[in-house]
Specification:
Purple Acid Phosphatase, chain A, domain 2; five-stranded mixed beta sheet; hydrolase activity; Calcineurin-like_PHP_lpxH; Phosphoesterase; metal ion binding
């Protein structure tokens, strides 16, 4: 099972549209995971229409229309991997312990908010993944997203993809 992880798209405020690389990755994914801050419901509609399966949550920049359609926390079991998605996990300091306490029956937690890619495993064995943002790099050198695979009840081949800088 092939996954695409994105967050903090902020369309159309930070970008008019998702980069073509993201739409290629959507087409190749069995499951698309969006960890919030969509900003406009039109992107949710388009992503749902173009995804084989989509799992998403709302973020702090998402208004009532998105909050009515998306949960704060999404959970799914994907080929034996217990996945949770949330927008915010709080500050980086103490994140692993906080997430271990909040998500004890989870194998992988996908989150966003900071626009900073993150990939660690907690002392309790929880994999924490933040794909960064494909549209708003903030202080990062590149916009980014993550792909991964699930096989034999494990997440594998987790890869951070850096997008080329856009001009104009």
């Amino acid at each position: 099972m092939h996954l695409l992880l994105i967050a903090d798209t902020h369309v159309p405020k930070r970008a008019k549209a998702l980069p073509p690389e993201i739409w290629d990755a959507v087409a190749a994914a069995d499951v698309v995971i969006h960890a919030g801050d969509w900003v406009d419901v039109a992107l949710l509609d388009e992503l749902e229409a173009r995804s084989a399966r989509m799992i998403g949550v709302y973020g702090n920049n998402d208004g009532p229309e998105l909050r009515n359609r998306l949960p704060e926390i999404a959970r799914a079991e994907l080929d034996g991997v217990r996945l949770a998605v949330i927008h915010e996990t709080g500050s980086a300091q103490g994140r692993e312990a906080r997430c271990d306490r909040s998500f004890p029956d989870t194998d992988v937690l996908v989150f966003g908010h900071s626009h900073i890619p993150w990939d660690t495993t907690t002392p309790g064995g929880l994999r924490l993944l933040n794909p960064g943002s494909p549209t708003d790099r903030r202080s990062q050198p590149h916009c980014s997203y993550v792909t991964a695979d699930i096989s034999d009840e494990q997440i594998r081949n987790v890869e951070l993809h850096r997008l080329p800088r856009r001009t104009g």
